[in-house]
UniProtKB/TrEMBL annotation:
<dbReference type="InterPro" id="IPR011701">
    <property type="entry name" value="MFS"/>
</dbReference>
<feature type="transmembrane region" description="Helical">
    <location>
        <begin position="319"/>
        <end position="340"/>
    </location>
</feature>
<feature type="transmembrane region" description="Helical">
    <location>
        <begin position="376"/>
        <end position="402"/>
    </location>
</feature>
<feature type="transmembrane region" description="Helical">
    <location>
        <begin position="154"/>
        <end position="175"/>
    </location>
</feature>
<keyword id="KW-0813">Transport</keyword>
<feature type="transmembrane region" description="Helical">
    <location>
        <begin position="69"/>
        <end position="87"/>
    </location>
</feature>
<dbReference type="GO" id="GO:0022857">
    <property type="term" value="F:transmembrane transporter activity"/>
</dbReference>
<feature type="transmembrane region" description="Helical">
    <location>
        <begin position="286"/>
        <end position="313"/>
    </location>
</feature>
<feature type="domain" description="Major facilitator superfamily (MFS) profile">
    <location>
        <begin position="33"/>
        <end position="479"/>
    </location>
</feature>
<feature type="transmembrane region" description="Helical">
    <location>
        <begin position="99"/>
        <end position="118"/>
    </location>
</feature>
<keyword id="KW-0472">Membrane</keyword>
<keyword id="KW-1003">Cell membrane</keyword>
<dbReference type="Pfam" id="PF07690">
    <property type="entry name" value="MFS_1"/>
</dbReference>
<dbReference type="InterPro" id="IPR020846">
    <property type="entry name" value="MFS_dom"/>
</dbReference>
<feature type="transmembrane region" description="Helical">
    <location>
        <begin position="249"/>
        <end position="265"/>
    </location>
</feature>
<feature type="transmembrane region" description="Helical">
    <location>
        <begin position="187"/>
        <end position="206"/>
    </location>
</feature>
<feature type="transmembrane region" description="Helical">
    <location>
        <begin position="218"/>
        <end position="237"/>
    </location>
</feature>
Length: 490
């Protein structure tokens, strides 16, 4: 029961009491609930950053090629993307709070399974179960926030939501580097257990159970088509230019993905119960945030993997030393979270997204100029600047995507956005591994060196600029409702 509800049940109601209750509700919406949900998401972000930094060490322990370890990341994202369409329906059917807590428990149990893995296939299976849990955790947590927060408070609440989650990238590289350098790599998975325990307790105590009264029937045909299509697309990117599958089979995967997506498009047209509502993409702000922002997120997905390969294998740093170098990027992102709302209020979403896309693309390209002789302070300064501006872009895209979405479509919008993010991040990791492979072959190298890794940053940085095509078409006052101002009608 909210503070306002308790006041309304009191024998005497005063205006001061109502005002205090309203302030308490606003405080819960603005800080308490977003912070608790964000703290639960800490488990997921911590795992992602720790895993990226630990890949070279795990590869040596399992006697595998480091490039093959990217499968542990892409399969996590694949499982998450395939299961995401069901998460919104489950939240509406069973209640978001129950689904959210269940996902945290499943993530912790699958993390323990990863820690017990004795070979790469077992580790991949554990990561896939982690992905299933993550598919419910992030979108359902965001859905709770979207349905309990007025749009005028959404940007601030989103910033609070992501602040605890950003603690993972800040401490993840150092924590992961410390574990794999001085202890056993399996502890990077075991640390999720206490985080899950605390998270479940906080969610149970404070987070409301958002639930729809009327739930549409589950779209099994849509789930099958999107699942097979996504799996084929990601496997295709994973094996493009590699020696694991013949070229004909890789082409077949892309063809199967195209067929499945085409069939789903026909299936979803005019279907009110389609698992993914394609009509949401007609909303310009949602399209800019998800489709345009996807080109930015490709680089976001590729960067942790590329940095681990560059610093540890290319430059010969230990995991601990590399973690000390890269944590500064997340620290810069955390600083930006406090300044993003006033920047967006001052300049507006359109101008911020366009200008910041140029800055983010330039910082990705700047990583291509890192050399073994580059001073460490300079590398850290560039990484900090990149993290600072990428955080602003990430916050802007997350807020803009829901600016014009009605409450009754929030569930599907959240699910669709999360699925798209997982897809493009997995494509980014697969693309990064493919670029390193092709560049190494072109250079005639027999082993992985920094000469093959550094140019890949330039390629993914250039991809970021494509997103400007979507931002430039936005009206000047796009997203004004998020700051409590009505949009100008033309």
């Amino acid at each position: 029961m909210s503070p306002a509800d308790r006041v309304l049940e009191a024998p005497e109601i005063t205006s001061d009491a109502l005002e205090r209750a309203g302030e308490a509700d606003a405080l819960a919406r603005g800080w308490l609930i977003p912070a608790i949900i964000g703290s639960a998401l800490l488990m997921q972000t911590l795992e992602a950053t720790v895993m990226s930094n630990a890949l070279p060490t795990i590869a040596r322990a399992l006697h595998e090629d480091p490039l093959r370890l990217n499968m542990t990341m892409t399969m996590f994202l694949l499982a998450s993307a395939v299961c995401l369409p069901v998460s919104g329906w489950m939240a509406d059917k069973l209640g978001a709070k129950r689904v959210f807590m269940t996902s945290m428990v499943l993530f912790a149990v699958s993390s323990a399974g990863c820690g017990f893995a004795q070979n790469l296939p077992e580790l991949i299976v554990g990561r896939m179960f982690q992905g299933v849990a993550a598919s419910m955790m992030a979108p359902v947590g965001r859905l709770v926030l979207l349905r309990t927060t007025p749009k005028s408070e959404l940007v601030g609440a989103m910033s609070v939501l992501t602040m605890p989650a950003l603690v993972g990238p800040v401490i993840g590289p150092i924590l992961g580097g410390t574990i794999v350098t001085f202890f056993n790599w399996r502890w990077i998975f075991y640390i999720n257990l206490p985080v899950a325990l605390v998270g479940v307790a906080l969610v149970r105590a404070f987070v409301p159970n958002v639930k729809e009264q009327e739930v549409s029937p589950l779209d099994w045909a849509g789930i099958a088509l999107t699942g097979v299509g996504l799996a084929s697309l990601i496997f295709g990117f994973e094996n493009l230019g590699r020696d694991f599958l013949p070229p004909g089979e890789v082409a077949g995967l892309f063809a199967l993905a195209a067929v499945c997506f085409g069939l789903y498009w026909r299936h979803a047209r005019g279907n009110p119960h389609a698992i993914i509502d394609l009509s949401i993409f007609r909303v310009q702000t949602f399209q800019a945030g998800v489709v345009g922002g996807g080109f930015f997120r490709i680089a976001m997905g590729a960067t942790p993997f590329l940095l681990a390969m560059l610093l540890q294998i290319g430059f010969g740093m230990s995991a601990f030393r590399a973690g000390l170098m890269t944590f500064i990027s997340a620290a810069g992102a955390l600083v930006m979270k406090t300044t993003a709302p006033p920047i967006l209020r001052r300049f507006g979403f359109k101008r911020v997204l366009i200008a910041n896309a140029v800055i983010c693309g330039a910082t990705f390209i700047a990583y291509a100029f890192f050399r073994p002789t580059t001073p460490h302070w300079l590398i850290m300064a560039v990484l900090a600047g990149g993290g600072f501006f990428r955080s602003l872009q990430f916050t802007s895209l997350n807020g803009l995507a829901y600016a014009e979405i009605d409450q009754d479509r929030m569930s599907r919008a959240s699910t669709t956005s999360s699925m798209a993010q997982q897809l493009v991040q997995s494509v980014g990791i697969g693309l990064a591994a493919m670029l390193i492979h092709f560049i190494g072959q072109w250079q005639g190298a027999r082993t992985l060196t920094w000469h093959a890794v550094a140019p890949a940053f330039a390629a993914i940085g250039a991809i970021t600029f494509v997103s400007i095509l979507w931002y430039a078409r936005l009206p000047a006052d796009a997203g004004a409702e998020l700051h409590g101002r009505p949009r100008r009608r033309v």
